[in-house]
């Protein structure tokens, strides 16, 4: 295993465009699994899965763990994909002007 020094990380200029929904859609297509069958395997409703796949809702940690149990795809990877996607596409939410500290690298 290798160690990563996050203080020495390199910033990326690319905006993450892949979410857990994309990964699941690819996986389902590759294995010819329907939404109904996938939902049944991970014990959620087909409607809930549809919301996740269409990015109307993000998956919970519980759902990510169920997907890991059913498919072997890491729950951590799915959660990280969703987090990165949400962070990259979030508009900030509110219009409050935050005043940065002088020492902050904003």
From TrEMBL:
GO MF term list: DNA binding
SMART domains, alphabetized: HTH_XRE (SM00530)
Superkingdom field: Bacteria
Matching SUPFAM superfamilies: lambda repressor-like DNA-binding domains
InterPro entries listed in its UniProt record: Cro/C1-type_HTH, Lambda_DNA-bd_dom_sf
Occurrences of domain HTH cro/C1-type (ranges): 24-78
Pfam families from the UniProt entry: HTH_3 (PF01381)
Protein name per UniProt: HTH cro/C1-type domain-containing protein
């Amino acid at each position: 295993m290798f160690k990563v020094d996050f203080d020495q990380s390199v910033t990326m200029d690319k905006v993450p465009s892949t979410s857990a929904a994309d990964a699941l859609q690819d996986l389902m297509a590759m294995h010819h699994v329907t939404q109904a069958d996938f939902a049944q395997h991970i014990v959620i409703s087909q409607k809930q899965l549809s919301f996740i796949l269409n990015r109307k809702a993000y998956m919970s940690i519980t759902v990510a763990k169920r997907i890991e149990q059913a498919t072997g795809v890491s729950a951590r990877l799915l959660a990280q994909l969703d987090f990165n996607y949400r962070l990259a596409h979030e508009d900030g939410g509110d219009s409050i002007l935050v005043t940065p500290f002088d020492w902050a690298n904003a």
